[in-house]
Amino acid sequence: MFNVKEMLGVYFIAGTQDCLHLENSAQENLLYILEEALKNGITCFQFREKGKNCLQNEREIFELAKKAQTLCKRYNVPFFINDNIDLALKLKADGIHIGQDDKEVCEVVKQIQGKLLLGLSINNLEQALQAKDIEGIDYFGVGPIYKTNSKSDAKPSVGLDLIKDIRKQNIKKPLVAIGGIQEAHAKNILECGCNGLAIISAITKSKDMEKTIHNLKN
Ligand code: TZP
Ligand code: MG
After folding, report:
1. Per the structure, how many domains does the chain have?
2. Domain that holds residue 50
3. Which residues are listed for 2-[(2R,5Z)-2-carboxy-4-methylthiazol-5(2H)-ylidene]ethyl phosphate binding in this entry (predicted)?
4. CATH number assigned to the domain comprising residue 124
5. Is 189 in the pocket of ligand 1 (CB under 6 A)?
6. Mean pLDDT across the stretch 18-26?
């Protein structure tokens, strides 16, 4: 249904914890920022309710995710959920993204039975080599490329070398770079062989969403 490489272009990630800097409630802010981002051409959205200040109540998380999904559907942009496989299946999301510390990826592949697209976070070459031939994995999220303020337990940043090394090993999976990415980095990262850029703060904190997303795309 969605072309994975195109979908990775400008892959926006957010939850309420990333939207505390505006005037209204974090939930209203998230939906507002998401709609602005959709209007201006993001190619994917991942709902990631995680870390300090995130929502705790399951019902609230479900309702908010559903509202975000409804917005994404209106703009025909794929809707992903971070980590929470049950929530993704219940909502019939388009995809799920998991990290190395989440449930074992082969278990996830079995559990989702091809109903969801699947992304896996990669932080070093060994992880990429291990997962490169697993068919149910649709893309790798590679990073953190640069230092990030959006994830308190982020691994040390890996720079562009990891992307280059993955491509040198002839690993063909679609790649999206993540971590500390700003507009000015886009060209360099894409030239290393990435299919897109995954972004929290450069979008949530943008003062000019149209310009930001335009610059990330070009
Ligand atoms: N995983 C690795 S870095 C990161 C995640 C979720 C945070 C990216 O946020 P930002 O603000 O784009 O650096
Ligand atoms: Mg995770």
Report:
1. 1
2. 4-217
3. 148-150, 180, 200-201
4. 3.20.20.70
5. no
6. 94
